[in-house]
Task: inverse folding
């Protein structure tokens, strides 16, 4: 992977625009790859749907990317948070939630989604999440560097080169 593009994944919400990254030469964004895993894992399909609903309805449309909705994973962030969230009489997540979706929360209105996987170990560095976790850290570092140096803006698809 020499570069990746940051592009809009969902901008239909009133509170937050959801971005994603797509590696050079890939047909799917990293977030699409995450949700495509639901087709291969029938027992977690409901969890994938719950996470998608939380992203588009709660974060995208109702509340924005509030800090309480994320867990910190070194420089990156992840969903779900460490505790359950109740919204509109629906409880999202629970203590041993089986999925992790890595992301970068820039502000309440900007969230960059990466990839994720089934949580099969105590730490993000191990198990099925290890590779996507390390990639999320790499994406985070590159995006933050470009953003803070004003080489990148969240208003159009933009390519970022890896060091």
Result:
């Amino acid at each position: 992977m020499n570069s990746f593009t940051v592009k809009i994944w969902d901008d239909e919400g009133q509170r937050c625009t959801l971005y994603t990254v797509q590696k050079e030469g890939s047909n799917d964004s990293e977030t699409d790859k995450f949700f495509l895993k639901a087709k291969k894992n029938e027992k977690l399909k409901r969890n994938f749907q719950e996470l998608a609903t939380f992203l588009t309805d709660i974060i995208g449309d109702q509340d924005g990317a509030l800090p309480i909705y994320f867990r910190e994973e070194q420089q990156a962030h992840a969903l779900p948070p460490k505790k359950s969230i109740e919204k509109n009489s629906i409880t999202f997540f629970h203590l041993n939630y089986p999925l992790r979706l890595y992301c970068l929360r820039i502000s309440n209105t900007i969230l960059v989604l990466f990839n994720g996987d089934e949580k099969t170990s105590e730490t993000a560095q191990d198990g099925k999440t290890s590779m996507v976790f390390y990639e999320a850290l790499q994406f985070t570092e590159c995006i933050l560097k470009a953003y803070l140096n004003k080489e990148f803006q969240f208003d159009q698809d933009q390519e970022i080169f890896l060091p």
Notes: Residues 3-161 form one domain. The chain has a mean pLDDT of 90. The chain has one domain: 3-161.
